[in-house]
Design goal:
Number of helices of chain B: 0
Structural class of chain A: mainly beta
Number of helices of chain A: 0
Distance between the termini of chain A: 34 Å
Strand content of chain A: over 45%
Distance between the termini of chain B: 36 Å
Strand content of chain B: over 45%
Number of strands of chain B: 11
Oligomer: heterodimer
Order of helices and strands of chain A: EEEEEEEEEEE
Order of helices and strands of chain B: EEEEEEEEEEE
Largest interface: A-B, 22 and 21 residues
Shape of chain B: globular
Radius of gyration of chain A: 13 Å
Structural class of chain B: mainly beta
Shape of chain A: globular
Largest sheet of chain B: 6 strands, mixed
């Protein structure tokens, strides 16, 4: 009964490829997020969606495109992968997306670009 | 320079001992401050959320403090257990929805 799940857990791919990471939450939350955690362990928010609508889009290259088919899913598609995209990507969700909301994180997807 | 600084970067403590982690921030306007625990290979888990008016908040053996005037927070772990070994991340929410993350403090509890 994982609350926030991501697939795959590990992803190894070549530079230039296109890949997707899937995220699903079964908590009934309205807001979902994507974060990137680099090798120095800094977490940075990439996107936030509320009820399938984009709320936050930090300065992320347009090679990254989130897609939310419904409010329980927020998938991350990455085009033309680069070495610098190697990181751990976390999906998260929260009830309504206010600043006081608790965010629940998925287990992460470790992306390695060769 | 990161807007949320955590110290120490890492620490090792013996099981049963207490420890305190520090978080200093410069971002504003402040909305709230959160402490997360991140086990190796797992996603962060929320420990506490503190708003401007809250000075102390506890979650079991974890107690967070906040001084919004000096922009400092601490996380105190009491009677540490082996399962407390993890990274502890301080996150400051500002401008209602913007997030600034600290680099975390890695705590290792030894038997």
């Amino acid at each position: 009964d994982t609350a926030v799940s991501q697939t795959p857990k590990y992803l190894v791919t070549q530079m230039g490829n296109d890949k997707s990471i899937k995220c699903e939450q079964n908590l009934g939350h309205d807001t979902m997020y994507w974060y990137k955690q680099d090798s120095k362990k800094f977490l940075k928010i990439m996107f936030s969606y509320n009820n399938k609508e984009l709320i936050i889009n930090e300065t992320v290259p347009n090679r990254f495109s989130p897609k939310s088919p419904d409010k329980a899913h927020l998938n991350l598609h990455i085009n033309s992968l680069e070495l610098g995209d190697s990181a751990v990507y976390f999906c998260a969700s929260s009830q309504v997306g206010t600043s006081a909301d608790t965010q629940y994180f998925g287990p992460g997807t470790r992306l390695t670009v060769l | 320079k990161n807007q949320v600084e955590q110290s120490p970067q890492s620490l090792i403590i013996l099981e049963g001992k207490n420890c305190t982690l520090q978080c200093n921030y410069t971002v504003s306007p402040f909305s709230n401050l959160r402490w997360y625990k991140q086990d190796t290979g797992r996603g962060p888990v929320s420990l506490t959320i503190m708003t401007f008016s809250e000075n102390t908040k506890s979650n079991g053996r974890y107690t967070a403090t906040l001084d919004a005037d000096t922009k400092q927070s601490s996380l105190h772990i009491t009677a540490s257990q082996l399962s407390d070994s993890a990274s502890y991340i301080c996150v400051v929410i500002y401008n209602d929805y913007k997030l600034s993350f600290g680099a975390g403090t890695t705590v290792t509890v030894r038997a």
